[in-house]
Amino acid sequence: MNADYTVTTERLPLPGETVPGGPIALLPGGKSGNQAASAARIGANVRMFGALGRDENADFLAGKLMEAGVDVSHVARLEGASGSTLITVDAAGENTIVYSAGSNALLSPSYIDSVQCDLTEGAVLGLCLESPMDAVVEAATICHSAGMTVLLNDSPFTASLPTDLIEACDVLLVNEHEITQLLGAEKLAGVDTDWHEISYRMAEIGFEREIITLGSAGSVVIDSGEIEHVDPVTVKAIDMTGCGDAYMGAILAGLVAGY
To answer: The CATH number of the domain where 171 resides is what?
Structure first.
């Protein structure tokens, strides 16, 4: 969960360059926060687990999640600042993001253990990598062992994932850039990529089920070697910040609903 300090500008600055921008807006964000809000707004019953600080942003973020319908009663409040991001958005909706972890960096396996009973009451666990890896692995392992479906978003991208996390992951969600980095491959050819080869190589790593987002080309679902391309929905882009998170929220809600 992060407080997003967002400013719009006609174009993104080059290194060392200063460009004029509009007023700074404070918006609720953070990958897991966005994903939880998205799933809840679609109609899923969502509980948020994580850590906020003891600052004004903590109250702001918790309040916005509750407005979206997310249960935040299990979120820890830790000393110090909550997570935050600095976001610049240009006229085309493209952005740059700088992330400061704040309280997210203080999340620990002991916290996961303390909420284990509540955590495992769900059917699906959504994870990203804005929290320390040992806490992420602990949550994935506990929930997978309890029979829950574990959906992992490898973002912020980590090339070398722990074996325990791979084994506990039921579905991996990555974008077209992240999967090439994960495989050490060349740039994908969009929908014309040899997806059966991608499926084979991902299975060698330990992933049998993947969802790969392709931007304006839609997405590809791989399920134990079965390949399905999902066409995109065309919209006018205003701000691309959180688009992947909203997508994951929809996937989480769909998995809970039995799709």
So the answer is: 3.40.1190.20
CB 178 within 8 A of CB 155: yes
**pTM of this structure:** 0.91
Encode 44-82: b = buried (16+ Cβ within 10 Å), e = exposed.
bebbbbbbbbebebbebbbebbeebbbbbeebbebeebb
- Tokens at residue 66, please? 């509750």
- Provide the residue range defining the domain that includes 28: 2-256
Residue corresponding to tokens 């109609």: 43
Which tokens is 185 given? 């491959």
- Return d(Cα 158, Cα 193) in angstroms, integer: 23
Q: What is the DSSP string of 1-14?
A: -EEEEEEE-SSPPP
Tokens for 57? Answer: 């942003």
Query: In this structure, which amino acid lies at residue 217?
Result: A
Rounded to an integer, what distance in angstroms lies between the CA atom of residue 116 and that of residue 259?
A: 26
Token code pair at residue 114: 């303390």
DSSP state of 178: H
pLDDT in tens, 145-170: 999 999 999 999 999 999 999 999 99
Q: Structurally, how many domains does the chain consist of?
A: 1
Euclidean distance between CA atoms 129 and 152, whole angstroms: 8
Distances (CA, A) of 59 to 20, 54, 62, 69, 71: 31, 8, 5, 15, 14
Task: Note the pLDDT tens digit of each residue in 184-235.
Answer: 887 887 778 899 999 999 999 999 999 999 988 999 999 999 999 999 888 8
